[in-house]
Design brief:
The protein has 502 residues and is of the alpha/beta class. It has 19 helices and 8 strands. Strands 5-4-3-6-7-8 form a 6-stranded parallel β-sheet. A two-stranded antiparallel ribbon has the order 1-2. Strand 6, helix 18 and strand 7 form a beta-alpha-beta unit. Helix 10 packs antiparallel against helix 11 (275-298). The protein is elongated. The structure holds NADP nicotinamide-adenine-dinucleotide phosphate. NADP nicotinamide-adenine-dinucleotide phosphate is lined by residues 248, 251-252, 295, 299, 351-353, 356-357, 384-389, 391, 426-430, 460-469, 487-488. The site of NADP nicotinamide-adenine-dinucleotide phosphate has 34 residues, from helix 10, helix 14 and strand 7.
Amino acid sequence: MNTLILAQAAAESAPAVPATVINLAYIVACVLFIFGIKRLGKTETARSGNAISSLGMLIAVVAVFLDADVMKSWTTDWIQNGYLWCFGGIAVGALVGAVWAKKVKMTGMPELVALFNGFGGLASLLVAWSEFAKLENGAPAVHDVAANPVSEVSLYLTILIGAITFTGSLLAWGKLSEKISGRPVLFAGQQVVNALIVLVALAAMVVYLFPGLVSAGDAATVQTVALYAGIAVSLLMGITIVLPIGGGDMPVVISLLNSLSGLAAAMAGFVINNNVLVVAGCLVGASGVILTVIMCKAMNRSIGNLLFSGFGAADSGSSKKAGTGAEPKAVSVEDAYLVLEAARSVVFIPGYGMAVAQAQHVVKELAAKLEDNGAEVSFAIHPVAGRMPGHMNVLLAEADVPYEQLKTMDEINPMMPMQDVAIVIGANDVVNPAASSDKSSPIYGMPIIKANEARTVFVLKRGKGKGFSGIENELFTLPNTRMIYGDAKATISSLVSEFGKE
Ligand code: NAP
């Protein structure tokens, strides 16, 4: 008894940080998030933007622990109150995150982001669940929607969105990392099944909010059953949403799931009354949606088409012009060198294959050789080249390619007929003329880089592999195109050596 009184006295005398200071820290954290995100928009400032946002997160986390209510708990019995687990969790999470982020390859980033989203959704779900499970006078609490409409609706929605994000992201991770087949799974009656799942989730929400509709007696038990039903059905919904989406569309889905994880976090902020969580969640939610829309526009797809059409299911026969019978013509590195040596303007068009080959450093070397030889060099960047937005920009920045040499699709296309040589490095779909000429092509309408309009086109790829959309590319058989088969890094290195032989 004495110990309890002493502990309570210690808690009351704990040096509480005033609420104004905590709120001020939250505002500083939010400003740093926004400032950091702004700087992520340009390659030169992206690193510092990342660091600034991380600092904002550190301030927010420290402020949570200095909050008067939180301090009261952990100064009395911090082990029993779970704060030992909090600090242990932070240490383990920071270690795992740091090692993983260090080890991940650029081509593996979408998978990593998928997992981050999934765990973000799970964290929000657990926060809301723990709020639900809090006891009142030793008994399960009744959650009265009339008394707390915002937090009760937010609690259910956090659980719903968090669960969808969790299983959806895990499935997306499995598809992207090829742990399971990346092909879309479509079956008869799929839309009906999806509609039923949504109906059950909504019905469970109504029962959760108004338990009296089901039983006048034990509201706490009715709410518990409704919430668990909501969790189960939302976990299922995450799977059914991602199942029909194909490998090529996964990066867009991941961006959408990223947005959902932000939304779940913002809702969790309402549940536990934490402003910084609301702001940070909204930032993630909004930026995820913007990114999704940018990617959809660049692929000329609507979000509805992406979610429900099973695009990745397209096979090579889905385009009328696919497989016209003409064979691509190959050229040797030595002959390609002779053309490049005479070229006055050369444009590099990098794609996913450059990322796979990790050819960016040798590409920079070749660009320098061409410039020394008097050619004007530029890099044409398609917004969805590679497997994530900005993929090519990141790789080329890593190789110190000057930012001024990077041209957007809209900048380079009008200049394409004036280019002596276009070197396509592991790009396929983003230079496929079928996107503008073949109405039956699954990529019809997607804006492309018009490599075919350059005087000579060299396509560097390993063999007859198709692009992400799985269709043939008529660029490879055009009269002004020559293929240089082999790994892009090896091919470019050989071209660099040819320049060295002068
Ligand atoms: P792509 O269409 O996927 O084609 C990549 C090509 O690289 C393949 O044809 C492959 O042919 C070649 N390749 C692979 N490894 C190589 C290596 N080591 N050396 C040389 N070549 C290699 O790539 P993309 O043109 O960049 O187009 C991106 C696609 O992803 C688009 O369809 C886009 O819509 C989709 N997508 C992108 C994003 C994004 O945010 N960036 C998001 C969603 C979807 P071989 O096997 O014959 O070598």
